[in-house]
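In response to the reviewer comment on reproducibility (Comment 2.3), we provide here a single inverse folding case reported in full, input and output, so that an independent group could reproduce the run without further information from us. The structure tokens appear first.
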């Protein structure tokens, strides 16, 4: 498909919204844009997005197939979505969907023969307090039942535009895709009518009744520009810096001794006692230079000469008689273990004897052993050895 000049001009406008080295970020609105022209994201639409963004079609297709709002086959003018998730289902959502499916003669993600309605069941439409709900091109119809849902789709098929419970006037899926691409709805009175739902108003009334509000909130406060916000932030930072107390310099004044005599000039007074930590464990440097194995061994078997009884994570073990192990036991045990388990070489597992391997290989290569056995016997003999 060859896209119109209007679509190509809008595509350039969308891409210009992003930095030159971040043009790939324009992919989502571009997919809405091609859906606005075709009614779905076709292979031609994928190729168009790849062309204008300098991507390959696999990269575009991966995004287009991830999001359910991008339709991969022709879709009707009105996408009717019925919530069948837990809350709406309990309130009758599944019955609404089943009734519409039978009335329209289509199933999930199928379109009526006249191309007007595409029906789908939705896992959640995020309006549990209005359930059961359905949407038409993502505009809400709250508290529906089977009969009201049938009335809505019949009016749509007859050319009417029923008013949603909340939101602006209905538009077609293609018109909705233009808005999702980031362009204003140019229909006359497109954003007229609508209003908040009763549960939403109930929440506001309860907040007003009980005096619940954000501290210092003024709904008439104008939204500041970025320059104004940056200026205010800089002023606040400068004010905070000015409020900080000046650093205290070390004093060199004479300090009186116990006999009233002055201490030598330059000698500082007695240091302030450090805050108590509640532990008698000495401060030690974290053993960052030790391997995890060594650190674990020392934790499990600390040396009696250095372990502190109440140090966090340590406990001095005893031999059952209440006697602590002698100093150095942990290090000695570790050294003995390392000596007895030499690391394996690159050519063989640890513990294999090189001489036996070489002898077996030599006998197998010669095809016989010392008793004159044949190649098969030699192989068996080598394996046994």
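Designed residues, in position order:
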């Amino acid at each position: 498909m060859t896209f119109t000049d209007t679509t190509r001009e809008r595509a350039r406008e969308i891409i210009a919204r992003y930095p030159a080295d971040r043009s790939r970020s324009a992919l989502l609105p571009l997919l809405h844009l091609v859906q606005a022209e075709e009614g779905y994201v076709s292979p031609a639409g994928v190729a168009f997005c790849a062309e204008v963004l300098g991507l390959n079609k696999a990269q575009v297709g991966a995004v287009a197939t991830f999001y359910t709002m991008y339709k991969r086959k022709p879709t009707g003018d009105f996408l009717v979505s019925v919530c069948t998730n837990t809350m709406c289902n309990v309130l009758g959502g599944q019955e609404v969907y089943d009734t519409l499916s039978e009335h329209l003669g289509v199933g999930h993600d199928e379109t009526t023969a006249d191309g007007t309605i595409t029906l789908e069941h939705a896992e959640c439409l995020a309006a549990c307090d209005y359930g059961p709900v359905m949407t038409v091109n993502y505009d809400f119809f709250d508290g529906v039942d089977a009969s009201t849902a049938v009335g809505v789709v019949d009016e749509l098929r007859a050319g009417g535009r029923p008013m949603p419970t909340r939101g602006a006037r209905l538009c077609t899926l293609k018109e909705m895709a233009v808005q999702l691409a980031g362009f204003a709805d140019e229909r006359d009175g497109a954003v007229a009518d609508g209003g908040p739902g009763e549960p939403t108003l109930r929440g506001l009334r309860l907040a007003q009744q009980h005096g619940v509000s954000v501290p210092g909130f003024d709904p008439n406060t104008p939204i500041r520009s970025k320059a104004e916000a940056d200026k205010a932030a800089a002023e606040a930072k400068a004010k905070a810096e000015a409020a900080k107390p000046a650093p205290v310099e070390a004093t060199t004044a004479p300090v009186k001794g116990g006999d009233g005599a002055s201490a030598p000039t330059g000698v500082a007074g007695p240091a302030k006692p450090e805050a108590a930590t509640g532990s008698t464990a000495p401060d030690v440097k974290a053993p960052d230079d030790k391997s995890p194995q060594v650190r674990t061994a020392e934790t499990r078997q600390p040396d009696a000469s250095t372990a502190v009884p109440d140090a966090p994570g340590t406990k001095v073990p005893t031999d059952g008689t209440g006697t602590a192990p002698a100093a150095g036991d942990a290090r000695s045990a570790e050294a003995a273990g390392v000596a007895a388990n030499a690391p394996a070489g690159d050519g063989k597992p640890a513990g294999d004897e090189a001489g036996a391997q070489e002898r077996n290989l030599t006998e197998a290569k010669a095809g016989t052993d010392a008793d004159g056995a044949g190649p098969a016997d030699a192989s068996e003999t080598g394996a046994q050895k």
